[in-house]
Specification:
about 350 residues; alpha/beta; four-stranded parallel beta sheet; eight-stranded mixed beta sheet; single chain; globular
C-alpha cells in the first residue's frame, strides 16, 4: 500500500507562498504559477541583509512598488520583525492596500494618473525624500540592488529538479530583471542549455521602446520609465514587446483554456510562449506566471468578451529596434548589452551580426 506524502507544516506563510505550482499547458509548455513571485526576491534579500548586519530587527525598510513586491516585502518584514513602508503606484488597488496595512506596513500612494512614467518618477522622488528625512530607514532598491537575485537560486533548484536535462526556454516579463535573471543565471552555471525570452510593454526604456505609447497599458510591473540597474541585458536571447490588448488576449486565453486565473504579465508570457513553442517544440518552455489575476478583474477579465483570439495573433519579426512597431514585435537579442542612458541605444546592431548563443 502506497503511503501518501506528508505535507510540510510551514513556519510562516512566506514558505508556503514562495514555491510555484507547475502546470503543463501543452507538450512543450509548462507554467510556473505563483500567488506572488516576488516572495523569493523579498525574502532572499531581507535574509541576506540581516545576515550581513546591514539591517537590524525593528528597522524600517522602504521601497517603491506597483503591487506584488510591496506585498512580498511586507510579509518578509512581518516574518523577520522589521517595519515596512511602501510608496505605492497609483495601480495598487484597495484589496492590496488593505493587506499591506493589516500586515503593519505604512503606505504612501501616488495620486491617480494615466501616465505610468509620471507615476514611477513620483514614487522614486518620494522614496528619496523619505530617506533624506529619515536616515534610519533602509531603502531596499528592488530596481537596482543585486541582493534581490539571491532568493531565486532556490527557484532554480526547483526548476532543475522538476524539469531535468534537455534544452529549456524561460519566458517571463523582464520587470526589474531579477526574477528572470536570478532563475537563468544559476541554471546556466550548472551547464543547463537555457534560452531566456523576455517580455516588455511598449513605452519601457529597458529595451528601447520608450518612444511608443500604449494608451490602455496598465502592465505596471513588467517595464519601466526609468533605467533599472538589476536588468542584465546580456542574459536575454529574445525580446518580445506586447501591447495591452495582446496581453489581455493571453490572460483571458490562459483562464479559458487552462482554468488559470493569472495577471497580465502572465498572460503576455503565455501568448509569447505559445508562439515560441510552435517554432521550437523540442524545447520545454517554462512560463513565469508572477501573480494571480485579482487586481485585473475589472479592467481585464470583466471585459473578456472583447478579448482577441490568441490563435490568430502573431508578432512582427524585426532585426533592429528601429523597426519596432505596435502591437507585438519580436527580435533576436543575442545576449548583447544595451545602454539605456544613451538615445543612440535605440539604434542597435541588427541581430544577424550579434554573436549567437549556444544554449
Amino acid at each position: 500500500m502506497r503511503t501518501a506524502p506528508v505535507p510540510p507544516v510551514h513556519e510562516h506563510i512566506t514558505d508556503a507562498l514562495k514555491a510555484p505550482d507547475l502546470i503543463r499547458l501543452g507538450d512543450a509548455v509548462v507554467l510556473a504559477r505563483f500567488e506572488t513571485l516576488k516572495v523569493y526576491a523579498a525574502l532572499g534579500a531581507v535574509r541576506a541583509l540581516l545576515e550581513r548586519g546591514t539591517v537590524v530587527p525593528g528597522q524600517t525598510l522602504v521601497d517603491s512598488s506597483s503591487g506584488i513586491y510591496a506585498l512580498a516585502l511586507a510579509m518578509a518584514c512581518h516574518r523577520h520583525g522589521l517595519r515596512c513602508h511602501i510608496v505605492a503606484s497609483t495601480t495598487v488597488d484597495t484589496a492590496m492596500r488593505a493587506q499591506l496595512e493589516v500586515l503593519g506596513a505604512t503606505v504612501d500612494q501616488m495620486p491617480p494618473s494615466q501616465d505610468l512614467r509620471l507615476d514611477q518618477e513620483r514614487r522614486v522622488r518620494r522614496v528619496r525624500q523619505l530617506i533624506a528625512d529619515r536616515p534610519d530607514m533602509y531603502w531596499m532598491r528592488q530596481y537596482h540592488d543585486p541582493v534581490h537575485y539571491a532568493g531565486y537560486r532556490e527557484f532554480a533548484d526547483l526548476v532543475d529538479a522538476a524539469l531535468p536535462g534537455g534544452p529549456l526556454t524561460v519566458v517571463g516579463a523582464v520587470g526589474t530583471g531579477s526574477s528572470t535573471g536570478g532563475l537563468v543565471q544559476p541554471l546556466r552555471e550548472r551547464g543547463r542549455r537555457v534560452r531566456l525570452v523576455g517580455v516588455q510593454p511598449f513605452g519601457s526604456v529597458t529595451f528601447g521602446s520608450e518612444g511608443f505609447s500604449d494608451p490602455e497599458a496598465i502592465i505596471a510591473g513588467i517595464g519601466s520609465s526609468i533605467p533599472f540597474g538589476n536588468v542584465r541585458h546580456g542574459l536575454y536571447d529574445t525580446l518580445h514587446w506586447v501591447d495591452f490588448r495582446h496581453a489581455m488576449a493571453g490572460a483571458v486565453g490562459l483562464l479559458r483554456d487552462h482554468a488559470v486565473f493569472a495577471g497580465l504579465s502572465s498572460g503576455a508570457a503565455h501568448l509569447v510562449a505559445g508562439w515560441e513553442a510552435a517554432r521550437q517544440p523540442e524545447r520545454v518552455h517554462l512560463v513565469i506566471g508572477a501573480d494571480t489575476g485579482h487586481r485585473y478583474t475589472e479592467r481585464v477579465f470583466a471585459r473578456h468578451r472583447e478579448a482577441l483570439d490568441p490563435r490568430g495573433l502573431k508578432p512582427h519579426q524585426i532585426t533592429s529596434l528601429a523597426d519596432l512597431s505596435l502591437p507585438w514585435s519580436v527580435m533576436e537579442w543575442g545576449r548583447r548589452s544595451h545602454d539605456v542612458s544613451s538615445p543612440s541605444a535605440r539604434r542597435t546592431v541588427p541581430a544577424s551580426t550579434a554573436k549567437e548563443p549556444t544554449a
